[in-house]
Amino acid sequence: MEEDEGQASSSIYLPHKSKPLGPDEVLEADPSVYEMLHNVNMPWPCLTIDILPDNLGSERRKYPASVYVTTATQAARAKDNELITMKLSGLAKTLVKDEDDEDDEADDEDDEHVDPVMDSETIPLKSTTNRVRVSPHAHETGEYLTALMSETGEVMIYDLKSQYKAFDTPGLTVPKASKRPIHTIRNHGNVEGYGLDWSPLINTGALLTGDCTGRIHVTSRTSTNWSTDKTPFFASDASIEDLQWSTGENTVFASAGCDGYVRIWDTRSKKHKPALSVAASTTDVNVISWSSKLSYLLASGHDDGSWGVWDLRNFGAEAPSPVAHYDFHKSAITSISFNPLDESIIAVSSEDNTVTLWDLAVEADDEEIATQRKETQELYDIPPQLLFVHWQRDVKDVRWHRQIPGCLVSTGGDGLNVWKTISV
User: Fold this and answer.
1) What is this structure's pTM?
2) In a 10 Å sphere around its CB, with 0-12 CB exposed, 13-18 middle and 19+ buried, how is residue 32 labelled?
3) Looking at domain 32-97+111-421, which CATH architecture does it have?
């Protein structure tokens, strides 16, 4: 991103070093560093989002692109809240080409004069939603199981199959039954929470939910209904901020808490106590992400703006250290996510209004990077692993698209961004 200061030369905008924007100043994206960038305005702030798996194929690189997403609102009045499911289509390439570059011109003809299209289906809600997550198995099972963690403490499970079909079936009306939850988890009482995750390994449906009193429940699908463990998993009264199922073992999960601990649990434990506990930060651990490519890697993002990557094989040690640790951000980390298609790439969002992309495979002594840092004074203390900085006001949640390499969807106070950089 570049900051327009009304001068002939522009400077690099860095959230932790550059002066705050004035009341009439705005940041404008440099289109030459994005392959795709689209903004979607929403009726209310939506602070959580997830992507629906679709039937359009994997490894999609052609434009215009289409994505299916679901989000939930933070409306001013509780009764105005909604679960909004959308199909965003006609998403054109935004890469600025050099005038002399005529390569692939024929391929790009379809990209011109394409207007993005948004189709949406809504479900009324009675309260705001802290987190929404879609089952990763929707494509294979045909059920678009979507869980909402409500601020009232209820966790509602919807099947958005009819909403998904309606986008591609002209004239199809979503039946009223499809706008009601297929199950509601009430084991948390009236205690709200933020921890929510579907198992990537159990395709029938296994859901983790955690609340602000430190209690974690596992809800599993039976042949006829849903069943929630009556005894919660519990280690301390500190709020559970995030939960992640293991990507390698179907009985193992991790929790992140306000006490600064990352804990590893096994659902087979009759004591419902953690198998391992590691002090990851002196502040809250807000978010975690389990790598789907390397199941021994877990990333954690903290309230002081730092984040790290842990090798779970070291968790048996008395005081393990992260294999990577960064404090580039100076405001709380709000979301962290391994790229599901590239184990070395991580997306991190922060309350400093940015999403950063990192490549952990980059070596600090890389000759090209060392030269760049010498030539550009502003870069001398920037970690060489930092790939990209995307600015988005009040950004809260960022998700990778598993079927469009490098594509991300992020949400914040001003709406949704669908974007892909030339870096990933």
Assistant:
1) 0.91
2) exposed
3) 7 Propeller (2.130)
